[in-house]
Amino acid sequence: MIYDFGIIGAGIVGLATAREILRARPGASLVLLEKEGEIARHQTGHNSGVVHAGIYYAPGSFKAKLCREGAEATKAFCAEHDIPVETCGKLLVATNEKECARLDALHERSIENNVEVERIDSKELTCREPDICGLAALFVPSTAIVDYKRVAAALAQAIQAAGGEIALGETVEAIREHGPGVEIRTPRRTFEVKSLVACAGLQSDRIAALAGARIDHRIIPFRGEFYTLPRSRRGLISSLIYPVPNPELPFVGIHLTKTIDGGIIVGPNAVLGLAREGYPKLSVDARDIADFLRFPGFWRTVGKHLKPGLAELRDSLWKRSYLAQCRKYCPSLTLDDLGPGRVGIRAQAVSRDGTLVHDFLFAETERMLHVCNAPSPAATSAIPIGRMIAGKVLARSART
Questions:
Q1: What is the pTM of this model?
Q2: CATH 3.50.50.60 is right for the domain spanning 1-86+145-216+356-400
Q3: 70: nearest Cα among 366, 316, 387, 365
Q4: Residue 113 CA to chain centroid, in angstroms?
């Protein structure tokens, strides 16, 4: 059988893309290949479950637009499929004068991005969140929480209901583009598709290289380590508590996040991962390490971010240091409160000059589109990202 469309990767972006293609092209044949035995096994299934509002991003940027659209689309999709969502809001808390100045800048940016926010002082902060302290805060009421695994499962059901096939346990070993289409070989089968989209996340650079696409970046894995608060602390916060991010750094910092099951998690940090898909603390993969050590961009980005990188490593190795980051805005937390938690690994695209890629990055041929980077927060923005990718693929397939 020759499929009209093939997708590699059953994370939330691949699933959303497949759904959007089938919605736009009813009756098309589509196969989605996933090397794991289940969908949403990696980034989608390991994130904090936040539906972001989009206040961080440059006004008018794709990221800002897609995040706003994605938040609305995610909530609507969840309502349609009876998936619980809690719109609990988020507080960005400034704990010193420098952070207050950054808070002012974020306030202005949120207005330009048309995101509703409320600036509150320390007295109002204490009134709303008695266990949180700070000089000032921004409250973002539209921020919500959800279980993205359930969102992914509902997307998979929609794909199958529309006639799409999801093939699990299919590790792609070879990709060959030829005249009428693309041949994809796994240990068990060979698939023929007229048009291929790869949404391979942590393996996206390798899949692109396997297909012969020209790329000039590498995926560098960053571990995000969370702790879980005990049940006795479940009433600690009523909204999500975030630090004010440093605009010079790529990550938003350790925060307190409610989960849709009623728990609270603390994190994540952002420490260099020694295995792209190794979640236990001491996971090491020699191939993954060799990949980034041989890449000039890795050493250049280490040079640019050495000091914060060492601080993140310190927090990872020393629990008391991790706690100190949390106690800046939640002083009542203790070491005993930090119980074992989840670990996520972020696929960070790094260019040859050492730049951390924060925008979309595609590698394209006549019949293939490789999504090499889908910028954070990809889970929140997955539905409009999928729509955008589907539009690119369908427009091109119409020309061939």
A1: 0.95
A2: yes
A3: 387
A4: 20
Both tokens assigned to 87: 């719109």
Strands of the chain (E only): list them.
Answer: 2-8, 30-34, 50-51, 90-94, 118-121, 136-140, 144-145, 165-168, 174-178, 181-185, 190-198, 217-228, 240-243, 255-258, 264-267, 271-272, 339-351, 361-364, 368-373
Condensed to tens digits (0 to 9), the pLDDT of residues 4-41 reads: 999 999 999 999 999 999 999 999 999 999 999 999 99
Cβ count within 10 A of residue 293: 9
Contact 197, 369 (CB under 8 A): yes
Q: pLDDT of 280-306, one tens digit each? A: 988 999 999 999 999 999 999 999 888
CA angle 304, 305, 311 (to 5 degrees): 155
Where are the domains positioned within the chain?
Answer: 1-86+145-216+356-400
Q: Please give the C-alpha separations between residue 376 and each of 121, 151, 242, 278, 296, in angstroms, as whole numbers.
A: 29, 17, 16, 21, 24
The two structure tokens encoding residue 157: 């059901």
- CA 325 to CA 381: how far, in whole Å? 28
Q: How far apart are CA 53 and CA 89, in angstroms?
A: 9
Angle of CA points 323, 329, 330, to nearest 5°: 60
pLDDT bracket for residue 250 (50, 70, 90): low
Question: Could you tell me if 210 and 372 are in contact, meaning their C-beta atoms sit under 8 angstroms apart?
Answer: no
Residue 324 has a pLDDT of 93
Would you state the structure tokens that stand for residue 369, as one six-digit string? 């589109």
Residue 155 · residue 30 · CB < 8 Å: no
Two structure tokens written together for 71? 């938040």
Q: 3-class SS at 315?
A: helix
Residue-wise pLDDT for 127-179, tens only, equals 999 999 999 999 999 999 999 999 999 999 999 999 999 999 999 999 999 98
